[in-house]
């Protein structure tokens, strides 16, 4: 497969070469920036710094511009100040900001003072925005032209400045007097337009899409992906362009979002650092919160079981099926929840559709419950017949109790699991916080009550 | 917030207007294609077809090119053949292919015969590829130029054909003799290059990245996102360009992948249709498979409990804490699994790092277990002190048993949950199939054994 013709260096090779970063740099200089970044991630910070120093300047800058390059901040601790300043100035503005968010405060002001005034000014503006907002991922290097320029003049300008801009494929047309954004042109619009036309007349007259610096970055990602944009302008309250967000940033944001969602569904507060790097105590804190909350909820199972202590004492055989029955409810519940969460995220299902979902989940849950109930009954009858276990003289009744309880619990699990995301959204929470463990806890308590109530009705006069 | 200046039409408005699709079309024609597609999704197929027919031709084509537009196939059943053919021919090739995958076979050949030979030929080639491969999402409308053209001539060619190509930002430079791909240029490369230079000399000499039509589409998405490409060529075995995949396609693929992952983690086979549209029986089938597998695994809990029937009969109080203890193990397990799955997907953790993960999870699990164990002991002592429940004369021993069991089960859950993705990957499965319910099932059985073994040791001579 011709996919990546420049294979990543093996760890063996890296270990061999780590003593000689110059030699490693020579090998890496034939590679793509993303691959070099991956290779450097596997080295200690100091060796990484020496490799970067040995690379051709343009490639080093490109490598530093990769969001995949880890702990840039610590690498810069090992780079000489005089070598660091030109590298940083050549980086794109959004990556500069990311770097300064990471460097230890001890060297931060030293590095900052080595930069030229323009870079420093832009950087200070970017650093004012929180990283989870659009302002925190935008870059200031966009192509902006006055609206009275011609297409020809704009294309010549792009040819001049194109090398240093984050993207040249979206051109931001500003009012020549007050510099407010008037229109956004794609380079394609300009390429196919007559060269002598005014740039403003070469594009559609629609008010351009834009966001504010405090817009959540997920919202910017949603707009870029829905309208297939290559870049989205970030405006201040007077309509001036502060910066732009590009489609590359959006992909990175989506990867982050995917991570958050999976972690949330697994019942962990989203980690904001790579798994192997997050300090031990931070990780325990992030996990303990949810785990304790679930534990407190699950304590209700002990209370519920306590109410049925007499029944259990009379018919210990009932206790044997407790884990089987409540876990089946939890499993069908987390299935239903994961389906509904995704359907909501994709806008396939809205808040007002709750009854349509309920109308699907009721028969689905019943059908699944009947299937599991049937298997459960067969299992008990089979074990009794073979003689692997003795469920007592009333074993057919025990089997029937388990079967009916499974139908009830699985149906309830599907209903509860599918309705929970609606409830969460209605009261203003993210439906994705309906994690699998949360649903399971909810269903466990109710499942016990359903099971023992059915047993109480079905076994009264025989076992109970 | 200036985000979307054209608000989506409210459902009320749509219902008001659905009797008059011409009027609706007039309103929609001022909107963006993605918003129109969303509006049409809320209409019955026939009304959607009439709205499309009422839109200006270019906008109708743009709307049909939105991957978000649902059941295009059924909409086309209501469009006159003579009106359909020009619409289809103007659509981009990848969306044509998607449309023909959806249209009922009854009208498929009728529509196909109305298309011109060139479109039909390209379409038949695209339809040969499975939708989950790169060939299934590629499009054939790319800008290809012979490598002996100058930059000037290439730019003039783009100005001519730019309107009808999927993207003009990646230019595919082909050998003039055998049409093999030699190089990929970005439009930026050409814009900043001298106009009289040969196009091949305006770009880097690296072998271009490419994929084959049978490459999984996730792999194409990974390459585009890692190397920040705008388009990736799909080559046949002789090195000819069959088509291209663009960054927009990648975003759609990532959304799909996100859905699959969440569904898998919830313990459902990935649905290939929207939740509200998948037929009842298909949904039950997709869910029943996993649910039955988990149920069979969970049956082992009944077997495990059976081994301790005597202990339960002697000390019914032990049964009360069974759900609490096993669910705590399951919860800590699904936390650990979700963390490790994501760390693997982001390449933060590799197969050989398993012992480093284990070395982190062991202390984490122990700490979390101690926290939950402490809460559990307090709960029992408190209930006893207040008089809400009577755990018998040996209640301090019962509390201690529950506490120690929690430490053991939570530690085991964290270890098992974190190691399972490694085991799955090692034996060749997708680590993401380590769903939360799967982990919970695994931990339930073991958790029971741990609990009753600890109880056996600690309570012998008193309760047992």
| Mean pLDDT value of chain A | 86
In whole angstroms, the N-to-C terminal distance of chain A is: 68 Å
Domains counted in the coordinates of chain A: how many? 3
Helix content of chain A: 55-70%
Number of helical segments of chain A? 22
The total beta strand count of chain A reads 5
Look up the CATH topology of the largest domain in chain A: Tetracycline Repressor, domain 2
Could you give the order of strands across the largest sheet of chain A? 1-2-3
Radius of gyration of chain A: 31 Å
Which architecture name of the largest domain in chain A does CATH use? Answer: Orthogonal Bundle
Biggest sheet features of chain A:
3 strands, mixed
Q: CATH class of the largest domain in chain A, anyone?
A: Mainly Alpha
Q: Report strand % of chain A.
A: 5-15%
Structure characterization notes:
The structure is a homodimer of 464-residue chains. The first copy, chain A, is mainly alpha-helical. In chain A, 62% of the residues lie in helices and 6% in strands. In chain A, the strands form two sheets. Chain A has a three-stranded mixed β-sheet with strand order 1-2-3. In chain A, helix 3 (33-41) crosses helix 5 (57-64), helix 14 crosses helix 15 and helix 21 packs antiparallel against helix 22 (436-459). Chains A and B meet through helix 12, helix 13, helix 14, helix 15 and helix 16 of A and helix 12, helix 13, helix 14, helix 15 and helix 16 of B.
């Amino acid at each position: 497969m011709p996919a990546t013709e420049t294979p990543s260096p093996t760890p063996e090779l890296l270990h061999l070469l780590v003593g000689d970063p110059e030699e490693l740099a020579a090998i890496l200089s034939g590679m793509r920036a993303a691959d070099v970044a991956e290779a450097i991630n596997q080295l200690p910070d100091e060796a990484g710094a020496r490799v970067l120093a040995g690379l051709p300047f343009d490639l080093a800058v490109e490598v530093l511009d990769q969001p995949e390059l880890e702990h840039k901040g610590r690498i810069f601790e090992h780079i000489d100040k005089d070598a660091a300043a030109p590298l940083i100035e050549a980086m794109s503005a959004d990556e500069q900001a990311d770097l300064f968010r990471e460097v230890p405060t001890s060297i931060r002001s030293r590095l900052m003072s080595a930069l030229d005034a323009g870079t420093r000014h832009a950087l200070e503006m970017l650093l004012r925005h929180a990283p989870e907002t659009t302002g925190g991922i935008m870059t200031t290097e966009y192509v902006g032209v006055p609206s009275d320029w011609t297409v020809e003049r704009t294309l010549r300008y792009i040819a001049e400045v194109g090398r240093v801009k984050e993207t040249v494929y979206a051109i931001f047309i500003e009012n020549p007097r007050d510099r407010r954004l008037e229109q956004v042109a794609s380079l394609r619009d300009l390429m196919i337009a007559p060269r002598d036309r005014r740039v403003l007349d070469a594009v559609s007259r629609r008010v351009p899409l834009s966001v504010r610096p405090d817009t959540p970055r997920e919202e910017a990602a949603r707009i870029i992906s829905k309208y297939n944009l290559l870049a989205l302008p970030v405006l201040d309250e007077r309509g001036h362009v502060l910066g732009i967000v590009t489609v590359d940033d959006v992909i990175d944001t989506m990867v982050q979002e995917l991570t958050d969602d999976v972690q949330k569904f697994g019942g962990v507060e989203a980690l904001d650092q790579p798994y192997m790097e997050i300090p031990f105590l931070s990780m325990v804190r992030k996990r303990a919160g949810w785990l304790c909350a679930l534990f407190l909820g699950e304590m209700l199972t002990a209370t519920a079981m306590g109410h049925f202590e007499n029944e259990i004492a009379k018919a210990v055989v009932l206790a044997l099926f407790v884990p089987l029955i409540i876990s089946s409810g939890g499993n069908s519940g987390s299935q239903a929840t994961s389906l509904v969460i995704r359907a909501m995220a994709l806008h396939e299902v809205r808040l007002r559709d709750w009854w349509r979902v309920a109308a699907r989940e009721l028969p689905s849950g019943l059908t699944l419950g009947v299937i599991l109930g049937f298997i459960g009954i067969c299992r008990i009858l089979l074990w009794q017949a073979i003689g692997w276990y003795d469920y007592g003289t009333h074993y057919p009744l025990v089997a029937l109790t388990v079967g009916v309880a499974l139908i009830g619990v699985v149906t309830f699990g599907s209903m509860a699991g599918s309705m929970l995301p609606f409830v969460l959204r209605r009261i203003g929470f993210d439906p994705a916080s309906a994690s699998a463990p949360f649903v399971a806890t909810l269903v466990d308590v109710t499942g016990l009550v359903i099971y023992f109530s059915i047993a109480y009705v079905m076994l009264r006069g025989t076992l109970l």
